Amino acid sequence: MKKYLLLGVALVTATLLLQSCFDDDDDYINYGYFVTPFDSISMPDTADFGGVIKITTYTKLKDKCQAFYTFDYKPQDSIRTVSAIAIQYDEEEVACGEEKTIAPVLDFNPIRSGNYKFKFWAGKDTTTNTDIFITKDIHIKMK
């Protein structure tokens, strides 16, 4: 009986080891993430405290092989630094289409009344290699 138990354990172990060696990743599309610059921003100059403020952002992505993923949102005191994270699919697996403008919406929920400064990443300066930002200010007033 002990021989059969050991044989069963050995067969299960061998099956698991062999299964993990199979190269069956063909069903998945390779992709990576990248930061895409904002072209423009649409947001109010003032808003009432106590509600969510919709900020429409505009950026360009290639149709089919790129997609908006999320915002990278970094609050520091009254300054909010925002960048757009997109997905780039492997162009050998997904053919790219034309470049198109998309308009992801950022929900801003202010934590207090007062002035906020938003810095939206708009790319790099080609001469100095420094970050370029679209800067927008909003005043949040008490109702």
UniProtKB/TrEMBL annotation:
PROSITE patterns xref list: PROKAR_LIPOPROTEIN
Stated name of the protein: Lipoprotein
